[in-house]
Design brief:
The protein is mainly alpha-helical. Helices cover about 35% and strands about 5% of the residues. It has six helices and three strands. The chain has a three-stranded antiparallel β-sheet with strand order 1-2-3. The chain starts with a helix and ends in a 16-residue tail after the last helix. Bound molecules: 2-acetamido-2-deoxy-beta-D-glucopyranose (NAG).
Length: about 150
């Protein structure tokens, strides 16, 4: 594991900030909502995806060069998946982008399920391809108990 990843992982565990969710807390929520094994993706993979996309920041909003925005813990894009009423959206998840930022993560997980159900799975996320895909990921669940 790269030292910069390790350091930001450590700090994300220490942050007491409404916006940033603790790694094991996130694992619990993902497990409860049956994300574990969904389309074959393990909790390790979901945690890696959330970390590389948002640093576990539930309320992260990022503007892209094309004018679309990415929302929440999985950085879900407004051109395709949700509607933020700022530019054209296909709105494949049939939801408001702001709901994806809800602290209970229900909409974020529901939309992420829709996205990974497509033929490219987690490869829909560029950061996943760059930092998670094909790497050893078992350390993401280290110290976490989900039940
Ligand atoms: C989380 O994301 C929000 C919105 O992008 C940002 O304002 C905030 O600073 C971020 N929090 C952390 C701890 O990075």
């Amino acid at each position: 594991m790269r030292i910069d990843l390790l350091l930001s992982l450590a700090s994300s565990l220490l942050v007491v900030n409404g916006q940033v969710i603790n790694r094991c807390e996130l694992a619990k929520i993902l497990h409860k909502e049956h994300m574990d094994g969904f389309e074959g993706y393990t909790l390790n993979e979901w945690l890696c995806l959330a970390f590389v996309e948002s640093n576990f920041n539930i309320s992260k909003v990022h503007e892209n060069a094309d004018g679309s925005y990415d929302y929440g813990i999985f950085q879900i894009n407004s051109h395709f998946w949700c509607n933020d009423y700022k530019s054209h959206s296909e709105n494949f998840c049939h939801m408001d982008c702001k709901d994806i930022l809800d602290r209970n993560l229900i909409s974020a997980m529901q939309c992420a399920k829709k996205i990974v159900s497509g033929s490219s799975g987690m490869k829909n996320w560029v950061q996943w391809i760059l930092h998670c895909s094909g790497r050893p990921l078992s350390h993401w669940m280290t110290g976490c108990r989900v039940e």
